[in-house]
Amino acid sequence: DANLDYRVKKAGLPVAWLNNEAYICHAPESIKHDLKAAFRIGMGCRVGVERLRSFDQYSDIKWNALKGVKLNSIIDVFQKKGVFVGFYQMLWDIFHIVGYIYQTLLKKSKSNI
Fold it and tell me: Of 69, 110, 75, whose CA–CA distance to 93 is shortest?
């Protein structure tokens, strides 16, 4: 949960890491499904940012604070995961940003009704 992760880091709470004994099974999704999810996550990120900004201690939160892979770490993704994954991450980021912007426009259009 990106909101929880942001609040934990902001509060300076310690995080305990599990050993590598945890097994997570995540069934692969289609690229279409994953990009639609990126769009919806971007929309949800916008809602989360707005709600967190309503609290004084989070009033300075930026749009990308709730995103898992930060834009400034894309070079790291290319180096560690390869060219294909790096470009796919960039494509995923575009869908995420478009969803975020769309949610902003959607909210504005509803307020004009």
Answer: 69
